[in-house]
Amino acid sequence: MMEQMYLPYTSSSPGPYRHMGPGGPPQGSKLGTYMNRGVGGPNPNTGQYQDMSSKINSLSLDPGMKIMNRQSSAPGRGLSPSSPGFVNPRFPSLNSGMQGGSMYGGGGPSFKLPAPIQSYPVVYGRPPPLGPPRLNLDKDAILRDMEKRTGGAASRLSPTMRLNPAAQLQNPPPMRPTGNVTPQPSPEQEAQAAASAAKVTVFSENGTTYFYNPDETLPSQLSTGQVVGNSLLVPNWSAYSGTPSQVVAMKVRNAAPTSLQESETKMELITRQMICHTIPDPQENQDIPSEVDNFTSLCPLEPPASSPLHKSSTFSYVTTVYKSVNIKTGQHMCLRRIHGYRLVNTKCMGLVEQWKKMSHSNLVTLRQVFTSKSFNDHSMIFVYDYYPGSETLMTRHFSSELNPQIDPYNGDTSRPYSQNKNLMRHQPAAINNTGLLAEALIWNYVIQLTSALRYIHSAGLACRTLDPTKILVLGRCRLLLNCSGIFDVLTYDPNSANPMAAMSVYQQEDLVSLGRIVLALACNSFHAIQREQVQQSMELVTSNYSSDLRNLIMYLLTNSQRVKSVNDLMPMIGARFYTALDSAMQRSEMLEQELARELESSRIVRLLTKLSTVVDRPEFNMDVTWSETGDRYMLKLFRDYLFHQITEDGRPFLDMSHVITNLNRLDAGIPDQLGLMSRDEQNVLVVTYSELKNCLEQSFAELVGAASSKPKNIGL
To answer: Deepest in the core among 134, 470, 551, 623, taking most CB within 10 A?
Structure first.
């Protein structure tokens, strides 16, 4: 609703208008202040009031509003308090007993304040269109709009009239704006008009206006991905995303510092690579042939035997192990040579084919078997996968057999600090304060060995080489069964009606061999498996390890009429299997994290190769200025920005992170800007990484196109 403003009128006025009281206007109002300033204070004399009333009666307020077309210079118009003939009006005092919604008592006429002027085109000399005005119920908005359109007319209302919602009328007469004031459009209307002229879409939010084209798309050089669905943007580039939180948490839980863990992994991989490239001393190994079948670069992996006739305790033949390179594939392989063996019957190759199909994470796979005379004798060569840096279980845990000082059975475990340090480097937290291996490590070995045996036995084969000298240890605790299939060839009986019938017997022997290895690991001595030491060894296991480990050893070593199976060991392993699985998964995550760090290294090298091929090229297509003009000039400045930065005092600025970060941004082609300054410091180019990437791709494409084109025949 709208506020009301009342003007004095005669007491004889009919209608609902009420006469003002004898007190005059309120003394705190602007009208009272104005009247007091004009005549020196309120005056109860109503003579001048009657004169004012007669003048008001002479006004014509017809609906046609003819008076609005009169000129301001007409008689009786445009009078100010200082003009001649102006008479100060007098009002009766405020009627304290007024009823209804009027502020003043009496019969004076009341006039409504005009409603907000509608946005009609203003045509002077013609009244605006009549009709019911649109009411805006927001009083503050109405007052602000009136002040804007009427030159501050609303500001002349008293505070009481501003705050009284009851003093409102419904049918105000239309008002004519002054001749020099035109309706001003709102900021929203101005923004909408500008947007319509520019043919763009406008959007306002929190006082900010946005102009945009809904059909606008990013240019091709700024596009960094493809849209999947309606909400996902998948980039067409990749970059290292940092260390995953689960890997960080694993490093925190470990006792070793993070830098030490990372260096151990890297040093282990570097050591393996160095071993792969090891070559023998030609002066000490003159009897090694340069090639054996399809293998070359043979290098012995075991120290030479004390005697040429020294036979292997396992195979009863003289054996030698070599590292070699396959000529056809370039892969490093392991050759195990059986000296002086002549193959009589080739039926055993059926078993060899079965072994070649075997693949398990705890089994060294047999790849090839052949005979050779390259060593000036008849030799049988078994080819296996090569695991550089591995060592035998005997070397890792039973090296004390060569030094009785550290045998737990002699009651003296003292040794030099250097030996302790070297052993602990290979077996961190593997030996407890009693000189025995940790039970968790033993169970880890048991899980791996039983997993490999279960796989082999389920295929109808037997390992037959379950010996500490033929079990490889790779890294911290990964076990690999080695030399599989050799016994099947060396002991093959061609006269047997069913050679596979003996496999069940060999499988039982594998389980007994497993029990002996577990007992030796529990006692940390290979002497513990001797017959006269078994009773003492079992007492040691009972007093230091769990009953499950003791029951497992007893089950494997005790003779029984029932046929044993590796599957019977699973209840004894129990939930320890899940612990081993969790450790393997954590190890996998660690290695994947190390791989992720090096995954994008080749991408940076390719980018640098392209950049170096284009920048500072002497000439291209007989144009010596090709590398100094156009896109190549920006690439040259970018090269200086990467590698030729200097500090404020002129020293070279060497920061690898600066180079890597900017190369990643260039390869991704992001729309971020950077400033490139010429060497004479007279020119500065502001470009984006996407523009630089576009320049590099186009320039390199020119070189590739010229390189792949057919050569021109140039006559001499």
So the answer is: 470
Three-class DSSP labels, 302-351? CCCCCCCCCCCCCCCCCEEEEEEEECCCCCEEEEEEECCCCCCCHHHHHH
Reported as a single tens digit per residue, the pLDDT across 486-533 is: 999 999 888 887 878 889 999 999 999 999 999 999 999 988 888 888
N-term to C-term CA, the chain: 102
Residue 393: alpha-carbon gap to chain centroid = 42
Task: Give, for 297, the enclosing helix (H) or strand (E).
Answer: strand 295-300
Rounded to whole angstroms, the Cα distance separating 284 from 301 reads 14
- H, E, C per residue of 352-365: HHHHHCCCCCCECC
Radius of gyration of the chain, Cα coordinates, nearest whole angstrom:
51
Half-sphere exposure of 97 (CA within 13 A, CB side): 1
Q: What is the pTM of this model?
A: 0.58
Is the backbone of residue 666 left (phi > 0), alpha (psi -120 to 50) or beta? alpha
Helices and strands (DSSP H and E) totals, the chain: 21, 17
Assigned token pair, 200: 């763009």
- Give the span between the Cα atoms of 105 and 98, in whole angstroms: 5
How far is residue 129's CA from residue 99's CA, in Å, rounded to a whole number?
36
What residues have CB less than 8 Å from 521, skipping those under 6 apart? 397, 437, 442, 445
> Which of 473, 303, 271 has its CA nearest to residue 390?
473
How distant, in Å, are the alpha carbons of 153, 389, 445, 497, 672 from that of 573? 96, 29, 11, 39, 58
**Those residues with Cβ within 8 angstroms of residue 235's Cβ, 6 or more apart along the chain or in another chain:** 224, 225, 668
- Using alpha carbons, select from 453, 489, 490 the residue that is nearest to residue 471: 453
